[in-house]
Design goal:
The protein is an alpha+beta fold and 311 residues long. The chain is built from ten helices and 18 strands.
Length: 311
């Protein structure tokens, strides 16, 4: 098969050793071309070029940001996307059933390519840009922005730095200024929201090996799920945390300050001031209006074999 491997050398878990092992394993059995990303947005152009040049599969070795960029370059085409986990969290790769280890996933990929299993998957759209697993608005995005401001800490401290950033942001004046309106195409509205997340797949993210399940019902075959809250007070957050880390199948409650809407085809978020948002873990320029939409069967992905589920 004709494969293109997009490598982000700055990603948290990409090492020279893992890269050599992966390249050798793939090139031994397939026609492989390797590209290295060098700047933000580069993977989108590289993926689109690989598709135009006849690649059957574009493989990303990087974090969720690299996966997102490649998806934006491939959506609507017949070139498949395969994410190898090379970042600090690797939400999308793990959510669709792959191990959180690039070398182990490569072995599994080679196995899968003996009898390729492809599937069409949905994407979300945020002001015209695709996202593969979620968009966070308000508090969630402010935390991500703080994490990204200290890139080296993110690379070496990982999840502990994320927790510290969340606590610092929660205690800041910035958090108390957040307020926006969330309206779904289905007629649901929440005013005064401080945080909202639109999910294309569950989980929302991982802390170590532990998934944070905001909306267990959402899959790549269904419309978006939206979770929003008007309060980040500790006593209001405890039920959310309990549900997100729990083992139940219902996800967050739809009562009090929290709203949990499933099967959402479109969402409009408006604010009188600029509000931060992040897309697949990458901070974006703050906006006063954000339009989110579900796009079914927008991308072809390489699916893991059924026996991988539950690993």
């Amino acid at each position: 098969m004709r494969l293109a491997l997009l490598v982000n050398p700055a990603a948290s878990s990409v090492s020279s050793r893992s890269r050599v092992v992966i390249q050798k394993a793939l090139s031994d059995r397939h026609d492989l071309i390797v590209h290295e990303t060098s700047r933000r947005g580069h993977a989108t152009r590289l993926a689109h070029r690989a598709m135009k040049d006849g690649a059957e599969i574009v493989i990303t070795l990087g974090g969720d940001g690299t996966v997102n960029e490649a998806a934006n370059g491939l959506m609507g085409s017949d070139t498949a996307l395969m994410p190898l986990p090379g970042g600090s969290t690797n939400v999308f790769a793990r959510a669709i059933g792959y191990p959180n280890n690039a070398v182990a996933t490569t072995r599994l990929l080679l196995e899968t390519l003996e009898q390729p299993t492809f599937r069409r998957a949905s994407l979300g759209m945020a002001n015209g840009r695709a996202f593969v697993f979620h968009v966070g608005v308000g508090f969630d995005a402010a935390v991500v922005q703080r994490v990204e401001e200290r890139g080296p800490l993110k690379r070496y401290a990982g999840h502990p730095w994320f927790i510290v950033s969340a606590l610092v942001t929660w205690a800041s004046a910035e958090r108390r200024r957040l307020s926006f309106e969330v309206t779904t195409d289905e007629g649901n509205t929440l005013s005064g929201a401080q945080m909202a997340v639109a999910l294309n797949v569950n989980p929302y993210t991982y802390l170590g090996n532990r998934p944070i399940d905001l909306a267990p019902e959402v899959t790549l075959d269904k419309p978006l799920s939206v979770v929003a809250t008007t309060s980040l007070a500790v006593r209001k957050l405890l039920p959310i945390a309990t549900a997100a880390f729990g083992k139940g199948s219902e996800g967050l409650p739809n009562r009090g300050p929290t709203r949990h809407w499933a099967d959402v085809h479109g969402v409009t978020i408006t604010s009188e001031v600029d509000v931060p948002y992040q897309l697949d873990g990458e901070p974006q320029k703050p906006v006063r209006s954000l339009r989110l939409e579900h796009r079914p069967e927008a991308i072809l992905i390489v699916a893991p074999p059924p026996r991988v589920e539950g690993r």
